[in-house]
């Protein structure tokens, strides 16, 4: 059964790559659905629930407006292909010696330096690796917990990894949050959005210095081996090439942002394969049989959000008569909606699809940046501040620190500060552009 599930994942990825060919969206959505159904027994409860709700959304669309199904299937195929491409890239890069050297070197230095290197290092690694960055760096934290015991140093390291990955939805041009936002708000430019969100993410990580535990000299970690400059340069060059490919494909060739990210990531994967062959090595093809959970959450959430937003938009006629002061108020509420839904276990993809799909249509064109900032920053705070976020659950498994403790005891005050700042920024930008 596993070879069939892996083949279906590759079919879904191929359909996302060839999305411009007629019929590929339906093929991709069908492959995703079959892969989820075949992996049902191995899935967790939350992905199962998301996919069941997606099935109900399909039944609803059949009765309400069958035209919604094609649009929803297209979104499902594109976003599933995106997450598969990123996961494939993560798997390929995870085998490199450079990444292991970089990850180990992040633990060196004094407490302040270690916290900053872990948080910003995890953010950097997360650009091409997505959740793979939590698995790579988090496994090193878990090993220290097992060998040296629980301490303020290991708890601060866990904080740094969670926060470092948590801000990646805010600044990474390859993150699904940025991709979804730019897809649903086509009038918004990527550079325009990142110009505001990158400084926000850096400020959020720096604010995390306030909310960490003091470490004594005895509790400070021993000196760690440092990576030479070469691995950092190679890894940084790879990130720049991938990001440059995204901007080239989306800006010059006018491809959708999601399609551009998928193609750019796959270009790096193919390049790594060709490099391996040139060195007389033939690494096995990555097995993607165990991606049912991710496909159910990403694909199911995209389908649900698309159907709901399409149904709601069908009830909106003409230009809504909204007072000007209400737009900045709505922009200020968007990050809190993401966070509140995350606390209830709702995946940010659902909220992002609903917010962008519904508000993006009626939002004033000149002030789309304010809505985009609210969506991306709210997604980021939700990623590190809620106990049901995937990175919090991964760190719980790797380190033994409960996701509830990490969210409510360690990160709650930082989350509230980040939400307040995100609301203020989104609101002020909306006011300035109206």
Automatic annotation (TrEMBL):
<feature type="transmembrane region" description="Helical">
    <location>
        <begin position="295"/>
        <end position="316"/>
    </location>
</feature>
<feature type="transmembrane region" description="Helical">
    <location>
        <begin position="191"/>
        <end position="211"/>
    </location>
</feature>
<feature type="transmembrane region" description="Helical">
    <location>
        <begin position="256"/>
        <end position="275"/>
    </location>
</feature>
<protein>
    <submittedName>
        <fullName>Uncharacterized protein</fullName>
    </submittedName>
</protein>
<feature type="transmembrane region" description="Helical">
    <location>
        <begin position="232"/>
        <end position="250"/>
    </location>
</feature>
<keyword id="KW-0812">Transmembrane</keyword>
<feature type="transmembrane region" description="Helical">
    <location>
        <begin position="7"/>
        <end position="40"/>
    </location>
</feature>
<feature type="transmembrane region" description="Helical">
    <location>
        <begin position="46"/>
        <end position="63"/>
    </location>
</feature>
<feature type="transmembrane region" description="Helical">
    <location>
        <begin position="322"/>
        <end position="339"/>
    </location>
</feature>
<keyword id="KW-0472">Membrane</keyword>
<keyword id="KW-1133">Transmembrane helix</keyword>
<feature type="transmembrane region" description="Helical">
    <location>
        <begin position="414"/>
        <end position="433"/>
    </location>
</feature>
<feature type="transmembrane region" description="Helical">
    <location>
        <begin position="161"/>
        <end position="185"/>
    </location>
</feature>
<feature type="transmembrane region" description="Helical">
    <location>
        <begin position="115"/>
        <end position="141"/>
    </location>
</feature>
<feature type="transmembrane region" description="Helical">
    <location>
        <begin position="369"/>
        <end position="394"/>
    </location>
</feature>
<feature type="transmembrane region" description="Helical">
    <location>
        <begin position="346"/>
        <end position="363"/>
    </location>
</feature>
């Amino acid at each position: 059964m596993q070879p069939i599930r892996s083949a279906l994942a590759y079919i879904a990825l191929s359909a996302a790559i060839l999305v411009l060919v007629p019929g590929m969206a339906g093929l991709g959505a069908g492959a995703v659905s079959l892969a989820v159904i075949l992996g049902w027994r191995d899935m967790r409860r939350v992905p199962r629930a998301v996919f069941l709700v997606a099935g109900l959304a399909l039944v609803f669309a059949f009765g309400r407006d069958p035209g919604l199904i094609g649009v929803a299937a297209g979104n499902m195929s594109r976003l599933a292909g995106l997450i598969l491409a990123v996961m494939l890239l993560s798997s390929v890069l995870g085998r490199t010696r450079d990444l292991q050297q970089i990850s180990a070197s992040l633990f060196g230095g004094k407490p302040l330096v270690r916290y900053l290197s872990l948080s910003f290092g995890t953010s950097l690694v997360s650009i091409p690796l997505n959740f793979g960055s939590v698995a790579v760096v988090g496994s090193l934290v878990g090993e220290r917990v097992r060998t040296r015991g629980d301490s303020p140093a290991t708890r601060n390291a866990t904080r740094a990894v969670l926060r470092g990955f948590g801000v990646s939805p805010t600044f990474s041009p390859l993150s699904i949050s940025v991709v979804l936002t730019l897809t649903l708000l086509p009038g918004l430019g990527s550079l325009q959005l990142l110009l505001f969100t990158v400084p926000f993410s850096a400020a959020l990580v720096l604010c995390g210095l306030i909310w960490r535990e003091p470490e004594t000299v005895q509790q400070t970690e021993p000196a760690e081996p440092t990576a030479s400059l070469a691995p950092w340069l190679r890894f940084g060059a790879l990130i720049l090439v991938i990001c440059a490919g995204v901007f080239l494909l989306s800006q010059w060739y006018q491809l959708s942002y999601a399609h551009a990210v998928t193609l750019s990531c796959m270009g790096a994967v193919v390049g790594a394969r060709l490099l391996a062959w040139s060195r007389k090595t033939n690494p096995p093809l990555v097995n993607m049989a165990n991606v049912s959970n991710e496909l159910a959450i990403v694909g199911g959430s995209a389908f649900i959000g698309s159907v709901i937003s399409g149904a709601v938009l069908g009830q909106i006629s003409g230009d809504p008569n909204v007072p000007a002061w209400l737009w900045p108020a709505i922009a200020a509420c968007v990050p809190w909606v993401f966070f509140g839904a995350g606390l209830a276990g709702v995946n940010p993809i659902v909220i992002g699809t609903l917010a962008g799909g519904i508000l993006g249509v009626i939002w004033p064109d000149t002030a789309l940046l304010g809505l985009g900032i609210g969506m991306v920053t709210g997604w980021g705070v939700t990623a590190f501040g809620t106990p049901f976020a995937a990175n919090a659950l991964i760190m719980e498994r790797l380190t033994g620190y409960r996701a509830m403790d990490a969210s409510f005891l360690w990160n709650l005050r930082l989350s509230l500060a980040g939400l307040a700042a995100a609301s203020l920024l989104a609101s002020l930008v909306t006011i300035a552009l109206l």
